[in-house]
Amino acid sequence: MTRLRWGILGVAAIGDRAVIPAIQASETGQLLAIASRDESKARTKAEQYGIPRSYGSYQALLDDPDIDAVYIPLPNHLHKRWTIAAAQAGKHVLCEKPLAMNAQEAQEIVEACAAAGVHLAEAFMYRHHPRIARVKEIIAGGEIGQLRAIRGVFTYNGAASKGDIRHVREWGGGALYDVGCYPLSAARLIMGVEPEAVTVHALFSEEHDNVDMMASGLVEFPGHVALTFDCGMWAAPRNELEIVGTEGRIVLNPSFLPSAETDDIAVYIGDFSRREGPYGVDAYVRQSDQFARVVRGEELPAYRPEDSVNNMRLIDACLGSARTRQRVTL
């Protein structure tokens, strides 16, 4: 089997925590190169993880003919520029969430990748975990009855972090971009339809370049079902998804960042409850392998690139509602 040869643009912490180990542990991938604008940082990271090649610029990595695909964990405002540059260099692209700064940028990215004939995926790794498919199966089977509500929370306290790119408004900082995108994408995935309207309240902090450090909202879907969510970078840590039906409910806790020991499903029906799992699965590895199989023509994409445009459209509406303090229809 020919392994997909990966390069990474940037030395962001998410690479250390998850993506570098996932590619190296995958069945399908080989991590061949890493780039940074600071060549010494790239070289240090390459030595740390046994990556054969390092580059002192992103373009130099894109010019490497041996690289098949790139992972882009750069700040949000750089996603469009470097995803399109990668596509034009003939590289397949796995880009960190959110795909862009707004829906228009996301659409331009999708069109550029389609024109170049490369595979594009947004790095929502949780969607590749088998428990997501199982949750959809439980709902479709009618065990929890008719769907009535979805609740999602994702918060942490990073307010004291100095020099954090998530605290820079022009770079795409803020809680909705960073963690709110998870419950928003999950609700759309569970519902299988696009929302109709949103109402969001947010804390725009002057201490943090007026990015939304906390946001709470209501997302209205067809069929009288709504997502209630909150997300924050200045709150106690929480990470949970609850799906409520007429006869029962499903809880994922933690929901969006499970470990192999905590990736189970809790199902509550009346006075009875059960747990399924843990599955012991690394969603980042699953994401890497699915990406490679799509590139090799062995599988269809689990999620079409247009899904990223629709999620950005929802994020745009949430930010618009929070800034105007008005309900926004989609």
From TrEMBL:
<dbReference type="InterPro" id="IPR055170">
    <property type="entry name" value="GFO_IDH_MocA-like_dom"/>
</dbReference>
<comment type="similarity">
    <text>Belongs to the Gfo/Idh/MocA family.</text>
</comment>
<keyword id="KW-0560">Oxidoreductase</keyword>
<dbReference type="InterPro" id="IPR050984">
    <property type="entry name" value="Gfo/Idh/MocA_domain"/>
</dbReference>
<dbReference type="InterPro" id="IPR036291">
    <property type="entry name" value="NAD(P)-bd_dom_sf"/>
</dbReference>
<feature type="domain" description="GFO/IDH/MocA-like oxidoreductase">
    <location>
        <begin position="133"/>
        <end position="251"/>
    </location>
</feature>
<dbReference type="InterPro" id="IPR000683">
    <property type="entry name" value="Gfo/Idh/MocA-like_OxRdtase_N"/>
</dbReference>
<feature type="domain" description="Gfo/Idh/MocA-like oxidoreductase N-terminal">
    <location>
        <begin position="4"/>
        <end position="121"/>
    </location>
</feature>
<dbReference type="Pfam" id="PF01408">
    <property type="entry name" value="GFO_IDH_MocA"/>
</dbReference>
<protein>
    <submittedName>
        <fullName>Oxidoreductase</fullName>
    </submittedName>
</protein>
<dbReference type="Pfam" id="PF22725">
    <property type="entry name" value="GFO_IDH_MocA_C3"/>
</dbReference>
